[in-house]
Each structure stands twice: as C-alpha cells, then as structure tokens.
C-alpha cells in the first residue's frame, strides 16, 4: 500500500494527471501539458520519458508557434473506444483509438423510434462488423459512449421523455448495450454529445464555456460549463427549444405555446413554404435553395436565425458562454442563419454577457454526436487501467 503524501504516491498522481490531460485532449505539446496540469516543465519532461519507455504514450516532433516541440499522445495500440449514436432516423457507429484517431465509421438508416430492442440488435451488429474491419482485438475495448435522442435521467439511467421516443419507454440504454457487448457503456443525450464532440474535435476546441445548439426535428442545446457538460439531475438541462417567445403563439409538443421550437424546428417551419414551394420540401432542401438565392427560403432561414438568437441571448444572460456552436442541417446555411442569430444576440443580450461571444457553425456536421460519444468513452475511462497495463481486466472480451 502506498501512503498518501508519500514520494511514490505523489509520483503516481503526477503520472495520472499527465495521462488524463493527454487522454482528454488527444495530443498536447509538453508545454501544453505543463499548463494543463500545473506541473513544472522538468517534471513533465521526466514523466513523459517514463510513460514513453513504458509504451503508454507516443512522442512525435511538431512545431508550436514556429518553434520545435514534442507532441505527446496516448499510444495508438493501447486500446480502443467505441461511439454509438442513435438519431431519430439513423444509427452511426465509430471506432477510435486512444490517440483520438478514428479507425472505422459507418452510418445506416434506422427508424429508431420504432423499437428499442431492434435498435440495440442493429447497434451490436454494426459494432461487431466495424471492430472486425479494424482488426483490433476485442479485449482492447476500453469503453463505449452511447448517444440517444432524448434526456437521460442521471440517477436511474432511463430515458426521461417517452413522448419523444415512444418505442423506448422504460429502456435503460447503457445497461442494455453493456449486457450485449460486455464492456462499460456510458450514455448521454445527443445534444450533450454534440457539444462534447465539437469541444474535443471541432469548433469548440480550447473553449471551456460553450453551448452547442442543434436544430433538427426539435431544438436542443448541450451546455459545457467550465469544461464539463452540465446535465441537471433529470438530464434535461439545455432545453432551449422550450423558452417561451410568444405566449399566444402556436401550441408546442410540450403543451406550452410559442416555444422557440415552434419558430425554428423543421415541423413548424416547413409548412410556411408549402404553398409556394410544394409539400415534399425538407430542411436540407430549404438550406440549399436559400444558398442558391431563393428569396422565400432566405426569409424563412433569417427568421429562424432571429428566433434562435433570442434564445441564445437568454442563454448569454444566464451563462455567459464564450462560444455558441450551431449544429444540425441548419448550420449549412452559414451566414444566412448566423448573421441573424448574432443580430438578435446584439439586440437582446446584456452587452457584457455577449461581448466575448463568438457564434460559429459546427465543424463536424452529422458526425458531431458519434465523435462526442467517442469523447465520452475516452473521458470516462480510468487512467489506472492504462498505467497498469490491465485494460483487459476491467474490459473483458465479449464473445
Ligand atoms: Zn415547448
């Protein structure tokens, strides 16, 4: 047993701090590791050498600010993580290594709402196929991140809102997938994973206070506060779509009237264009037409942007984020939607709450959630398993 405060336990704690910093960021220069962990440059240098000799990390030459530097990442063959993302109409799976490289990724159409059991069957199949394709041994799986399109109750692990996913009533998604794969599974809703994905891999890199707003069949937000996803006890934090904009507005699926969602989500916005543009228009199509200069579609996208901007202004006043990242199909509209969002924020937010805010489109498109699931698996795995080389002891191979 190591005595707390002893030289060896201090050394061990430093090793874990360095491994954790690299695990969460993907790769860091030694100077960045020193900044992140608060350790001295000399200590970091010694620890990196020890980790490299033990095969835990890889060091490659790079340049930082025009100067030669050494980039440190976890060893690519130390283990793998798996991301599984259930959308309303698709299933997407990615396999990545601990150095944040995606080794395999595939998406297939799936009516997720229909049946949870069928969804898990398909996920199990796709995971098995992708692992086989990468040729990595299953004993190397460190964990799975799982995304579902609804709020997850943090205590019980059950899906909170059955109105959104009727076929999933009572489902415990993490437990279900853990039973099938035999490895640790961590679950979160799609908006939170989108936020995590953009923070680790995309438009939110290097930012500690961020909101990821996804406009699709609904409007949701993933909130990152001081570097951590904020979920709330019922997993419902970030329901920006149900901020009231007009209390005599259209009736929302939540039962209220005039929620932001009723001015921004596809099901409410598309009917506005039906008489002029036909009934088989999709949000994707509206964005494309708007980019080609269609005045009606441009007007609708601008109005959606103004309304989202009102919601973002409220968010700024409450949380003062430094970045808002817009995800989903709508982000493809670029300045056509981002301009009106910024305009509303300028009009409705307290100036000091929005001064440092940048509003950017997501960099990952439809991959944000599955990459966020990889990031979740990476953030939840422990460092002791890596340092002791006993990954297979906590994550037994499944058959
Ligand atoms: Zn509502």
Automatic annotation (TrEMBL):
Signal peptide coordinates: none
CDD domains (UniProt xref): ASKHA_ATPase_ROK_BsXylR-like
Source domain of life: Bacteria
Residues that span the membrane, as ranges: none
Pfam families the record matches: MarR_2, ROK
Database matches in InterPro entries: ATPase_NBD, HTH_MarR-typ, ROK, ROK_cs, WH-like_DNA-bd_sf, WH_DNA-bd_sf
Chain ranges of the HTH marR-type domain: 18-68
Molecular-function GO term, any one: DNA-binding transcription factor activity
Stated family: Belongs to the ROK (NagC/XylR) family.
Name of the protein in question: Transcriptional regulator
Source species of the chain: Streptomyces albiflavescens
């Amino acid at each position: 047993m190591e005595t707390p405060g002893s030289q060896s336990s201090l050394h061990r704690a430093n090793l874990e701090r360095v491994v954790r910093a690299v695990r969460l960021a993907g790769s860091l220069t030694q100077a960045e590791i020193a900044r992140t962990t608060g350790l001295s440059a000399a200590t970091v240098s010694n620890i990196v050498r020890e980790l490299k000799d033990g095969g835990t990390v890889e060091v490659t030459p790079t340049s930082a600010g025009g100067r030669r530097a050494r980039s440190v990442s976890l060893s690519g063959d130390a283990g793998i993580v798996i991301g599984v993302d259930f959308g309303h109409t698709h299933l997407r799976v990615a396999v990545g290594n601990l150095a944040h490289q995606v080794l395999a990724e595939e998406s297939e159409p799936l009516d997720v709402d229909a049946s949870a059991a069928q969804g898990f069957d398909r996920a199990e199949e796709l995971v098995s196929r992708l692992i086989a394709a990468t040729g990595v041994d299953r004993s190397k799986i460190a964990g799975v991140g799982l995304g579902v399109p609804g709020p997850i109750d943090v205590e019980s692990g059950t899906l909170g809102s059955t109105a959104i996913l009727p076929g999933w009533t009572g489902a415990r998604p993490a437990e279900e997938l853990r039973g099938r794969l035999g490895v640790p599974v961590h679950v979160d809703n799609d908006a939170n994973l989108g936020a995590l994905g953009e923070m680790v891999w995309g438009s939110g890199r290097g930012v500690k206070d961020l909101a990821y707003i996804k406009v699709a069949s609904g409007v949701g937000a993933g909130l990152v506060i001081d570097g951590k996803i904020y979920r709330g006890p019922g997993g419902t934090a970030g329901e920006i779509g149900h901020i009231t904009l007009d209390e005599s507005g259209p009736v929302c699926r939540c039962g209220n009237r005039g929620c932001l969602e009723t001015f921004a989500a596809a099901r409410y916005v598309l009917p506005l264009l039906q008489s002029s543009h036909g009934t088989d228009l999709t949000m994707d199509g509206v964005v494309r037409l708007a980019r080609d200069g269609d005045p009606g579609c441009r007007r609708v996208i601008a109005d959606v942007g103004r309304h989202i901007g009102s919601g973002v202004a409220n968010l700024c006043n409450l949380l003062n984020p430094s970045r808002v990242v817009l995800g989903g199909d709508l982000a493809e509209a670029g300045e056509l939607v981002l301009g009106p969002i910024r305009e509303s924020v300028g009009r409705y937010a307290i100036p000091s709450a929005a001064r440092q805010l940048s509003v950017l489109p997501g960099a990952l498109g439809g991959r944000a959630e599955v990459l966020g699931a990889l990031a979740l698996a990476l953030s939840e795995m422990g460092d002791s398993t890596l340092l002791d080389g006993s990954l297979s002891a906590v994550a037994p191979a499944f058959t």
